[in-house]
Amino acid sequence: MDASSLAAKAFISIGQIKPLGAAPDPAAHSGCGTSGGEGKASCGSSGGPDDMPAEIWEKVKNHPCYSEEAHHHYARMHVAVAPACNIQCNYCNRKYDCSNESRPGVVSQKLTPEQAVKKVLAVASEIPQMTVLGIAGPGDSLANPKKTFDTMRMLHEQAPDIKLCLSTNGLALPDQVDEICKYNIDHVTITINMVDPAVGEKIYPWIFWDHKRITGYEAAKILHERQMLGLEMLTARGVLTKINSVLIPGINDEHLIEVNREVKKRGAFLHNIMPLISEAEHGTYFGLNGQRGPTAQELKAVQDACAGGANLMRHCRQCRADAVGLLGEDRSEEFTLDKIEEMEVVYDLDRRRAYQDQVEVERQAQHAAKVDALQEAKAAMPEVDPDMKVLVAVATEGHGRVNLHFGHATEFQIFEVSAGEALFVGHRRVDLYCQGGFGEDEQLPSIVKAINDCHAVLVAKIGACPRDELKAAGIEPVDQYAHEFIEKAALSWFADYCGRIASGQIVHQPRGDAAIRQGAYTSEAA
Ligand code: CLF
Ligand code: SF4
Questions:
Q1: Are residues 204 and 88 in contact, defined by beta-carbon separation less than 8 angstroms?
Q2: Binning pLDDT at 50, 70 and 90, where does residue 10 land?
Q3: Which residues make Cβ contacts (< 8 Å) with residue 358, sequence separation at least 6?
Q4: Angle between helices 255-265 and 296-305 (to 10 degrees)
Q5: Which atom belonging to ligand 2 lies closest to the Cα atom of 143?
Q6: In this model, does residue 443 exceed pLDDT 80?
Q7: Cβ(169) – ligand 2 distance below 6 Å
Q8: How far is the CA of 242 from the centre of ligand 1 (A)?
């Protein structure tokens, strides 16, 4: 589909969505999420040590999913020990990884708890910045309590510095809160797609509950009640919770604003609104029945409408249930069971701590340099329309800088830039353009579609052919800020852009919508 036609097909008219901040504040009580005051997204995944109590910062500072900044420095891994599930979601086909926490279409290597522990220790000895172990399927972690908690118990004993994390649909959660606390599992994700069973029955055909299969409205009602109870119990015990919601256009899009409000009330730390990935080839009910996923602007509209509610996570990569590495990269192939057998595993706690101390030093230095660079860019900003906001795509391989060749990008970070700030608002996966030294021109239209709502793409370098194609699509290729900090580069470009508008050199045009990539990659990173 042509990206420019996506907006016309949208279920949600972006202007129709009422921002959550405009609604009465329903938060009678909640955890860290309310302490910043209404409308101030102060302690979500973008928060820092000044935005939250010290004990919360300790829990999130090196968790790549709970801290946006941490995800550039620290890695997570999943072990696929939980194959069974106690519910059916219409977006899931059990032959694939759990759609909640994984990229559909990639089958995991299922592990026993003993194999899982061996794998975690092997990864920990090779990747000292791996700080978090998550159990996220391929089924539901708590529908497999023995396998999940055996793994957690052994890791709690053998690798005490690794944070433990799990993801669940919530049905079995209230029964397992004691076990969760027993092993110090400090981070729990609950997938909550609705707070109204009438919406839920369109998403969940059945649940298995109290030794029988229950369908329809009653199934969704039980699931909803268990999810809310489980969330409240975790909040009461001081466990940090993240809510994942799958945005399903026409089913729960606007409803997710209500979900955000309800989970904030119950103390959720973060809300991660993810796009439905839905293709017929995945064999899911939704995929086979033509239910589409949201466009990039539909997703952003719902996320923006939740501003002021539970804080949002915007850097989720919808990873697979056996992912290993930094978010956005996957090193699981390096740690298959046969490879682990041949590895010399030395779990050296002191070495890990020393390495992580070094990461912290570099992180602080990078943060300080970025703050200085930003101040410089803001000081140089001319008078511009305060309501003007545009999106820019950025090619980066880390360190917070524009430092990646256009042709080497498998994703672009998206920043919303205005006179006062450059805010990270998400990322877009793309197929790799550069294949073995040559540009793959067939990939260009899909890359353009993925960033079609952006006014510019900031890169370290770009070839003539993609440069021309981007320009023809109305996206400005920009390489003059190569190796600058991203926010500084984005603000500098924005100042220049506004200057060109003011001088009459160009006319500002609104952009259209963009497509969120569905399905597996068609090309591998070089
Ligand atoms: Fe894994 Fe999930 Fe823990 Fe993270 S993932 S169990 S909270 S350690 Fe992270 Fe992956 Fe998104 Fe999940 S990027 S899919 S939010
Ligand atoms: Fe699939 Fe996860 Fe839903 Fe279970 S909870 S049906 S594994 S998406």
A1: yes
A2: very low
A3: none
A4: 40
A5: 4
A6: no
A7: yes
A8: 9
Alpha-carbon distance of 129 to 329, in angstroms, equals 14
Q: Which residues of 258-279 are buried (b: 16+ CB within 10 A; e: fewer)?
A: bbbbbbbbbbbbbbbbbbbbbb
Q: How many residues does the chain have?
A: 526
Residue 4 burial by CB count (10 A; 0-12/13-18/19+): exposed, middle or buried? middle
Q: What are 245's strand-pairing partners?
A: 273
Q: Is residue 192's pLDDT more than 80? A: yes
Q: What local confidence, expressed as pLDDT, does residue 116 receive?
A: 94
For the whole model, what pTM was predicted? 0.87
Instruction: Kindly state if the Cβ of 231 falls inside 6 Å of ligand 2.
Output: no
Phi/psi at 390 (5° precision):
-135, 160
Span from the CA of 406 to the centroid of ligand 1 (angstroms): 27
468 has a pLDDT exceeding 70: yes
CB atoms closer than 10 angstroms to residue 508: 12
- The CA angle 102-106-108, to the nearest 5 degrees, is 80
Interatomic CA distance for residues 414 and 395, integer angstroms = 9
CA-191 nearest atom, ligand 2: 5
Q: To the nearest whole percent, how much of the chain has pLDDT over 70?
A: 86
CA distance 334 to 328: 16
Ligand that lies nearest to the alpha carbon of residue 101, given by its number in the listed order: 1
Task: Quote the ligand 2 centre to 85 CA distance (angstroms).
Answer: 6
Examine the pLDDT at 178 and tell me if it is beyond 50. Answer: yes
